[in-house]
Design brief:
This protein is mostly helical. It is built from 11 helices and no strands. The longest helix is centred in the N-terminal third of the chain and has 70 residues.
């Protein structure tokens, strides 16, 4: 009995000190295993049952006292649990939707890229079609420009058309005839420009002097002073050399004004291109430069120089003779044999 009492004391002290249920269970097992008397065991068992019953009664009382709070707490807990579960399901659904959107966006991006590339291709095709349409009109426009002697515009148009036909439009089989035609015209274009250049260099300039001479002859024939024989005045005649020299020294300090003045020459489609011979010859030289035929031009000028000068002498001699004959006729009519 003393041993059982000591065990019961240890059990109570253990219950009072320890709040761990496992420790309490181990203490009870130890107490029952060390007890030798069946009566002590029954007594211990009775105490345990009484203690459990007391706990149940206390629990029931507490439940009765706090029933409302407990019910509210349980409902709140259930609501929170349901919300958490719904939130998890919604988050899972959102993740699935995001993955689906990502896949769709990838597909849309590829589709948009494809449409963008197709748009660029169609734009390029439209530009090529517009260029083809413009090039088809080149022969007619070229003929008009050549007829009106707007050679610089014709040269630009021809060079640009040939570059397109032999470049981006090289694979267009339907333009082969036009390509050959324009290429042939480009190869022969410089011959026309060289002829025009020679005409202004040697013929048109001397014709102006002859016309001035005739005008002075008419004036002198009205004046009865036979000593005032008209002479050829070429000091004020505009020649390419004078044109380039005056433009060269128009702005002091410029070492490349000769080239600059040639680059600044522009063709006015509304005016007569031959009105100013110097500008017209500048336009011809600029056109020959665009055709890359300057060496051929220099060679042609050198080859034809002697022949053209002889023609100038021949024409001048004829003009002087005709003028002298006409003056003699006028003087003879006025009974002035001298």
């Amino acid at each position: 009995k003393m041993a059982a009492g000591e065990a019961a004391g240890r059990y109570r002290s253990t219950m009072s000190k320890s709040k761990d249920p496992s420790g309490l269970l181990i203490s009870v097992i130890r107490t029952l295993s060390t007890s030798d008397d069946v009566e002590d065991r029954e007594t211990e068992k009775g105490r345990l049952e009484e203690a459990y019953e007391k706990c149940d009664r206390d629990l029931d009382e507490l439940i009765v006292q706090h029933y409302t709070e407990l019910t509210t707490a349980i409902r709140t807990y259930q609501s929170i649990t349901e919300r958490i579960t719904n939130s998890r399901n919604k988050i899972k659904q959102v993740k699935e939707n995001l993955l689906s959107c990502k896949m769709l966006l990838h597909c849309k991006r590829d589709e948009l890229r494809k449409l963008w590339i197709e748009g660029i291709e169609h734009k390029h095709v439209l530009n090529l079609l517009d260029e083809i349409e413009n090039i088809k009109q080149v022969p007619q426009k070229l003929e008009q420009c050549m007829a009106s002697k707007h050679y610089l515009n014709a040269t630009d148009m021809l060079v640009s058309a040939v570059d397109s036909l032999e470049g981006p439009l090289l694979q267009v089989e339907g333009l082969s005839d036009l390509r050959l035609e324009l290429h042939s015209k480009k190869m022969n274009m410089h011959l026309v420009l060289i002829d025009e250049l020679h005409r202004h260099l040697y013929i048109k300039s001397t014709n102006r002097v002859g016309q001035r001479n005739k005008e002075k002859g008419r004036i002198s024939s009205l004046v009865k002073d036979a000593s005032s024989v008209p002479l050829m005045d070429v000091t004020n005649l505009s020649t390419p050399r004078k044109f380039l020299e005056t433009s060269q020294f128009s702005t002091p300090g410029s070492s490349s004004m000769r080239e600059t003045s040639l680059l600044e020459i522009k063709e006015d489609m509304e005016l007569d291109p031959e009105e100013n011979s110097a500008v017209f010859m500048g336009i011809l030289i600029k056109g020959l430069a665009k055709l890359k035929k300057i060496p051929e031009t220099v060679k042609a000028i050198q080859d034809r120089l002697e022949q053209e000068l002889k023609q100038i002498v021949k024409r001048s001699t004829t003009q002087v003779a005709d003028n002298g004959y006409q003056r003699g006729e006028n003087l003879s009519q006025e009974n002035q044999p001298r």
